[in-house]
Specification:
Oligomer: single chain
CATH superfamily of the largest domain: P-loop containing nucleotide triphosphate hydrolases
Shape: elongated
Radius of gyration: 25 Å
Structural class: alpha+beta
Order of helices and strands: EEEHEEEHHHEHEHEEHHEEEEEEEEHEE
CATH topology of the largest domain: Rossmann fold
Helix content: 10-25%
Number of strands: 20
Number of domains: 2
Largest sheet: 10 strands, antiparallel
Strand content: 25-35%
Distance between the termini: 37 Å
CATH architecture of the largest domain: 3-Layer(aba) Sandwich
Length: about 375
Amino acid sequence: MPATALPLELVALTKTYGDTVAVDAINLKVPAGTYACLLGPSGCGKTSTLRMIAGHESVSGGDIVLGTTNISNVAPAKRNTSMMFQNYALFPHLSTRENVAFSLKMKGVDKAAREAKADELLDLVQMAPYGARRPAQLSGGQQQRIALARALVTEPSILLLDEPLSALDPFLRVKMRGELKRLQQDFGITFIHVTHSQEEAMALADLVVVMNDGRIEQAGTAREVFSRPRTPFVARFIGGHNVLEGRVAGVDDGVIRADLGAAGHAATAAAAKAPTAGDPVAIAVRADHITLHPASTPAEDNALSGHIASIQYQGSFVEVRVDTGAEEQVLVTMPDTIFDAAPLSEGEAAHLTWPIAEGHLLSATSA
């Protein structure tokens, strides 16, 4: 059985390379047994964070606490963590069984015991029939399973995964997502998974941590991060949202009314610290919560006007982009049946509306 799962806490964790700040004093708590995804674009600091947890990068400042032990300066082999690398790093001259058992060999475990343990892990990842094969004789998905078994054989309290699905084709990537989640639940240990794929993070994570420019913009469940993005960056990066920017026209009865320029206006519930008239404001609205009308539709509390810039059929739904004159086009998604019932064409005038409750006031600062 694997080691007991332990919680992980990062306290003002910082990584600098010369004058460049890669990770900027981040704070994060990951409960024991959590599947956490560090999500963000290239260069946001997520891999540097993972490598500091593993001990493969030195800590420039702050602390890494696993359970009750500060492991910031502990040697990688003594941290009770294990890392699965992006390129799998399998030894080409060793068999599958020998690859899985290698770390146990380095610990001095006798041959019979380490091979028995390796066979147990190969069975768990459904690779038992391939124990005698070498990596070159395996598919990409099979190699990934071997790398995962090798990472788990030492019974770590936390498993670190660096873009583990990036080398797989789309169909296999979806299949292996399910395998990763199953294994994490079976083992019950903490997984920290680095990815730039929003879909991957949403499908896998109990805790999604969105990073940008070395900072944590938002951390929460997949549903929280998607439904209630905290900043314009999160709303744009997670996808499926429009960020509408304008200035506050007024605040009354707990409702902020915003002027979005010549194209229209918006209203949304005021936050605890509501902006005042004239302040800049950003409001997120999900693309699937916007209704597309002919231009003759009467104005509402939330309304934008423009022209249809593009229409893309996506199978069960249609994506429509509307040019309102703002820097960003407005995305509307709707079931294909609804679009087909009253189709519009590119270049046509259009009117967009949404309920006040579907607008979400965004903060200008990260977490």
